[in-house]
Amino acid sequence: MSIVSPSATKPVRNRRNPEVTRASILEAARAEFAEKGLEGGRVDQIARRAKANKQLVYYYFGSKDELYKSALEATYAEIRALERELDLTALPPREAMVRLIDFSLEYLDKHRDFIRMLSDENAHGARHVRGSEMALQTNSPLIALLSEALERGVREGIFRSDIDPLELYVSIAGMTFFYFANGLTLSAIFGRDLTQPRAVRSYRDHIVKLTLAGLGA
Amino acid sequence: MSIVSPSATKPVRNRRNPEVTRASILEAARAEFAEKGLEGGRVDQIARRAKANKQLVYYYFGSKDELYKSALEATYAEIRALERELDLTALPPREAMVRLIDFSLEYLDKHRDFIRMLSDENAHGARHVRGSEMALQTNSPLIALLSEALERGVREGIFRSDIDPLELYVSIAGMTFFYFANGLTLSAIFGRDLTQPRAVRSYRDHIVKLTLAGLGA
Amino acid sequence: MSIVSPSATKPVRNRRNPEVTRASILEAARAEFAEKGLEGGRVDQIARRAKANKQLVYYYFGSKDELYKSALEATYAEIRALERELDLTALPPREAMVRLIDFSLEYLDKHRDFIRMLSDENAHGARHVRGSEMALQTNSPLIALLSEALERGVREGIFRSDIDPLELYVSIAGMTFFYFANGLTLSAIFGRDLTQPRAVRSYRDHIVKLTLAGLGA
Amino acid sequence: MSIVSPSATKPVRNRRNPEVTRASILEAARAEFAEKGLEGGRVDQIARRAKANKQLVYYYFGSKDELYKSALEATYAEIRALERELDLTALPPREAMVRLIDFSLEYLDKHRDFIRMLSDENAHGARHVRGSEMALQTNSPLIALLSEALERGVREGIFRSDIDPLELYVSIAGMTFFYFANGLTLSAIFGRDLTQPRAVRSYRDHIVKLTLAGLGA
DNA sequence: AATGAATGAGTATTCATTCAT
DNA sequence: GATGAATGAATACTCATTCAT
Predict the structure, then answer these.
(1) Does C3 sit within 8 Å of B17, measured CB to CB?
(2) pTM for this one?
(3) Which nucleotide lies nearest residue B10, CA to C1'?
(4) Which of A156, C51, C194, D81 is the most buried (most CB within 10 A)?
(5) Cβ–Cβ under 8 Å, residues A204 and A146
(6) 3.20.10.10, 1.10.357.10, 3.20.20.105, 3.30.110.70: CATH of B64-215
């Protein structure tokens, strides 16, 4: 009566080595959480995306929450790596500032998933970030880069001297983040499609203008 | 075992005040969704908060999603009402701009729930806003106020003339929104408590400075 | 705060007299139960169909089950009335038999609701019929008519004499009822649309042929 | 407080026999749906009958509707298997016809559940049958058997030649099905217990008589 | 007679997680 | 390391019925 005959070998599919399995689960988790958020993301779906057994998710990550933390860390690691590649020190202060704005805009434009994860994390009281050694330790190199560019500008007499680098960072991040994070709502309410590339470019010019003039000595 | 004292009658609802019942459910929903988000909010909990029978939630609002939409609309209605009270036309251009920034900061500081709902709504593709006549129709009066102040500033020769009001609005909203929306994460990562009133005041000065200088002719 | 001002008169809509209200609820119930069955039928929907207040359903009928019984009785009363109009005594035995078959087929074809109610009632162990004085008392006049026609046929030597009228009734009812009751399934399985008028006519001829020959002396 | 005695182990399912688990759920579903119908059947109850966790029902069958479809298919498969065993070709035409009638009567008499499911399925527009590859493909072998017996009868000059096999099948099925399907109602209304074995035998003789005479050349 | 508001027990379904191998 | 089967607690939503006026 049994469909599976006793002699039938189990479909052993574990061709991949552990690291690959783990990595594919993590990747699947990032995609899932970025799309659906922490609550909306499904462990089942993550396993399916990773083409792995659901139990493996628990074997490697312990729980959904831990997995989320790992996904968050991976996301942070990625952006930090890109930030580290930004060589602002090679650029004159104004160009450095523009470069920073462009970097921020481009990254967010291309990585909407980052926006979702960041929003979600804050909605949950930054619980995972706080519990993450990694996220806390490797803080953004941008502040240092920004500080340095700011100082050079001040020294050259083109930037005002009463600007706090962290506050500047937050305001630039805010202007760029909010644009993409709330783009859909803004577009709906104001009847103007802010997701169009043209609109993005125009907004970029606006921020650059505002910031450079704002920093002007 | 009973929490209720023997003499306590069952919490018979106010049968003559359906509006009150409806309003209390809506209020409970706003609180619940603001705390837990759309997915995290529980209909059961909303009913309990409103001291209403769970079925009443459905009786009055049809579904969790509709209820969320109603909560969102109520939230929008509230902020719009406040915005309408902002009499920027009575102020000189610079003061008007400062007033706007202050309003934005103060509102967000006091209404963290608004932040959560806005983030959540965007995470869900602005689905409810798009489906809401009300949210779409009564769009923010701020843009008009901002336009007017901007124009006056330009006429007076104190503001530059190449600023788009909507883009300015978005950038100001971004700077303020992001600060509160991501305050917890930022605080954790940078090891500096941005939620302290002092920090908020300092950031406020920063934005004002940056914006006014940025708009300067 | 109240939307309804105290002075606003209640929308008194009870223009109709009680009998009309009761009748419209009953009619709505018949339609609803015929479509959805006892379990599938919704009291809410019945009230809406009848444009009556839901509570009125209870006021007039006591419970959903009682209402179902009433609907069933109304359905029976209707078909019995039609049966009583059948004047088989005026027809020669063979024609009487054909008339009976045609009546049965036509009624079922036009009143699919009757089929649903009868099936449903049986699925529930004929519970309502058993509890209905009316359904039990006014039993079908068809048996008497059939008996009489059968006897005449026997006397005339054209019908065999060993036929029990009730059994004949059941077999004719079966042949006609089953055709419509299970028409959809039969059509699906045999890939032949039995609901087409042509198919119905052909089947009618088949039954007539089979029955008359079957009864033949 | 615990109902379970300390020594009683939790009913740990047979982890090595998923087929058994699946089968027991299916069996429980057939029983439940046959008794209560599609709407009346409770998933909870099915799980309990099968001594399985409720979630397993979903694990194996996806939804109540799919489960119903599977139950329907199992029921069809069973009757088809029996039909295939009917060796009408070995019998003379008249005997073949009688055999068919007896088979039909006996099956329905013993499997009241089949009647309920068939009625219910039709009440739902044959939705599940239409969506079932299996039900559509393995259509009844009876039609072929019946055709063959009919033809032989015609060739032997004992059956009339203008009989359509499908229509004959439907009329026989109708006479038998209706008897059991509506037996309770008929018994109640006519005050004659048709469920008694004696009554069944008598009705059987009636159908045989009617059919054979009806088919007579 | 009529009405809208309120209730409680149910009902299918989902989901993170663990077991046994 | 890997797998499929199993579990329990939730969760949104429904429905017949009753209350108070």
Answers:
(1) no
(2) 0.88
(3) E7
(4) C194
(5) no
(6) 1.10.357.10
